[in-house]
């Protein structure tokens, strides 16, 4: 029988591919390619395309799949940072799905990660079922909140006992927020560094050519010595019903470099006049918000799920870069059908640091590489994973020891998509 399908060629992007690659990206994400402002859109997107980290699949001249990565700096438990390959812009055009194009692109990318010396890859998965097969595991979780302000039993609002809050314009915000975020991200595992472009988009210095710029309210929290320790960005839907205000305040970003800053910004957000509901998305699963309310149940969790997925590549490097809850040793046997993370490793770690190297000792725990991704930032329990057969342990005591080592006081949180 004649083969009617010519081979689809996967190759690294060149500048000549840009327009076609962007068209395929839109189609893959079910967006009709825009004819309006076409050149400006292409120019805007060039900022995100690093030719060495971008590939496309081509069926003749037609681009039918896109794949891209960016270096992302991730904080791990204990405060060390690692450069991860942040995979993004993954699409395969509907007519070319389920022929292995994603699998081919992913294999190329993971090989490149190893060549570049990146010890892990991370991504934010559109659907749960896509990336486990490539050795990724869900490593952080998220929660969306809706606060019914009238049920929150807040008491009367008082300005902060320590420090102060100021509403500022975007220029003032842009002067302080990046530095606050730097301190915050080094203190919270799971967070990724924000690039300059992030702040340009928030402050309106850079605007997507197809979007209309909409400003937001920006609040800074300063401590008693005048240092800015936190910020809040929000917008409000001004609604009224029966002659009464029913505004909805949407928290776009609430970041505290100290617990005081975080608490004061939340107290402010839930007590703005005319606001009946506060909506906050992609918050950490252990957010302090409910604990600040007289009635914690008024902060309803409207969605919860996995967020950042993590694919270990260099196990000794990963495990030796984080700290652990208690000082102990463990032998982990990691299975990886793609080969990168396969092996048996002796971890000797504690609150002050760790070492990890290949070993021939008998394993305490046997697990798949994606399960290690699941555990790495401290969001999962080894006992829970063993209960569903994802970890095999030499004995129950080894499982409990691993649990105490890997879990962290605050849960990891990745506030940003990329
Ligand atoms: C998700 C997507 C990239 C998959 O591309 P693809 O080329 O069809 O994937 P492959 O053919 O390489 O599939 C490899 C395997 O993954 C499975 N798979 C692919 N997409 C899946 C999905 N959404 N859910 C569950 N399994 C999926 C395939 O069935 C196949 O399984 P098999 O190896 O057991 O046969 C593509 O469907 C797509 O572009 N979807 C819309 C955009 C999107 O969600 N992108 C991801 C953004 S994070």
TrEMBL record:
Catalytic residues (UniProt): 131, 418
Domain Eis-like acetyltransferase: 190-302
UniProt entry tagged with the keyword Acyltransferase: yes
InterPro entries noted in UniProt: Acetyltransf_17, Acetyltransferase_Eis, Acyl_CoA_acyltransferase, Eis_dom, NAcTrfase_Eis, SCP2_sterol-bd_dom_sf
Signal sequence bounds: none
Keywords: Acyltransferase, Transferase
Single Gene Ontology MF annotation: aminoglycoside N-acetyltransferase activity
HAMAP family listed in its UniProt record: Eis
Family, as annotated: Belongs to the acetyltransferase Eis family.
Subunit text: Homohexamer; trimer of dimers.
Record-given protein name: GNAT family N-acetyltransferase
Organism: Wenjunlia vitaminophila
